[in-house]
Amino acid sequence: MFCSECGANNADTAAVCAQCGRNLQAVTPATPLQPTPLQATGVVLAPVAAVQNYLVFAILSTVFCCLPTGIPAIIYAAQVNAKLQAGDVSGAQVASRNAKMWCLISLGLGLGLMALYAILIMVGVLSGIHQNR
Amino acid sequence: MLEIGKNRLLTAMFAAFVAGTVILRLFDPATSGIFPPCPVHYLTGWYCPGCGSLRAIHQLLHGHLWAAWALNPLTVVLLPFLTWGLASFALFEIRGQGLPKPFLRAEWIRALGAAIILFGIVRNLPLHPFDLLAPGAMLGL
Fold first, then answer.
1. Given an 8 Å threshold on Cβ–Cβ distance, is A82 in contact with B85?
2. CA B124 to CA B56: how far, in whole Å?
3. Helices B73-95 and B53-61, interaxial angle, to 10°?
4. What are the pLDDT digits (tens) for B34-48?
5. pLDDT above 90 (res B12)
6. Nearest CA-CA partner of A1 in A14, A13, A12
7. How far is it, in rounded angstroms, from Cα B41 to Cα A105?
8. Angle A52-B77-B115 (CA atoms, 0-180°, nearest 5)?
9. SS (H, E, C) A91-130
10. Does A63 contact B39 at a Cβ distance shorter than 8 Å?
11. Sequence-separated (6 or more) residues with CB below 8 Å from residue A59
């Protein structure tokens, strides 16, 4: 299948163009499967390419918080796009949920560590005051 | 209900972003004790890929590009893209359409992940050109 936007050659099942990211499935007419002509006009297809890969949050998790939980998020973010390239939209959605989960784990871990640090600081400050007396 | 919850989360994230920027501008993580240390460096003594990133952003917020580069070149390179991505995410949540973004092939994302890990390994090596990648080494810190 050739992309209507940039002309790149893609696999026939590809959901998005590997070259420019254009949604290839929305271009294919959806009418043959729908027998009711009333719905044929104005049908808005769900944007297939809009499967979030959470890459920005995966990188933020890796670099600013927690390397061990950020790396799985990056791996799943890559998997989202790999599945989209192969035309496996439901697989991409599963990978997307996993990417989101690892980002949230990182966020929770980061907030937990910050809270722990704050508690340690306060305990340290309080014991410091105690010692000064 | 769902919309309200979503808006609250967005508002909280935006508030955290603004507060973080202001705090990072006012306090230097190199000298101030209010920032938690990197857990990886604290536990293992090794620099992680993000070590020095908060100090680097502090320097960037004061316009010191070279100091930021010396503290964490990876952060300086990634920050424009991360900012663009965050802005796109926020706009997508608000108006349903993000900023124009290229579709990254899976191979490129994996290469980026590998590059981040490689950077984390290389900046710990005690060999001369590589030891400059440790936080602040280029400044002689």
1. no
2. 18
3. 80
4. 888 888 888 899 999
5. no
6. A12
7. 20
8. 70
9. HHHHHHHHHHHHHHHHHHHHHHHHHHHHHHHHHHHHHHHH
10. no
11. A70, A74, B78, B82, B112, B116
What pLDDT does B11 receive? 87
What lies within 8 Å, CB to CB, of B104 at 6+ separation is A55, A81
Question: Considering the entire predicted model, what is its pTM?
Answer: 0.75
Q: What one-character DSSP code corresponds to residue B36? A: P
- Tell me the residue type at B133: L
Token readout for B87 is 């802005």
Nearest CA in chain B to A68: B40
Question: Interface pTM (ipTM) of the complex?
Answer: 0.86
Q: Model confidence at A13, in pLDDT bands (50, 70, 90)?
A: confident
Work out the mean pLDDT of chain A and round it to a whole number: 77
Q: Mean pLDDT throughout A104-117?
A: 91
B15 or A14, which is more confident: B15
Give the nearest chain B residue to A74 (CA atoms).
B113
What is the spatial distance between Cα B91 and Cα B97, in angstroms, rounded to a whole number? 6
Nearest to B48 among A60, A67, A114 (CB): A67
Instruction: Tell which of B89, B103, B119, B121 to mutate to test the A interface (max A CBs under 10 Å).
Output: B103
Residues of B in contact with A82 (CB under 8 A): 106
Q: Among A10, A44, A59, A83, pick the best mutation site for testing chain B contact (most B Cβ within 10 A).
A: A59
DSSP for residue A16: B
Q: Integer distance in angstroms from the first to the last C-alpha of chain A?
A: 79
pLDDT at A3 over 90: no
Q: Backbone phi, then psi, for A3, in 5-degree steps?
A: -70, 135
Percentage with pLDDT > 90 across chain B: 54
Per-chain mean pLDDT for chain B: 89
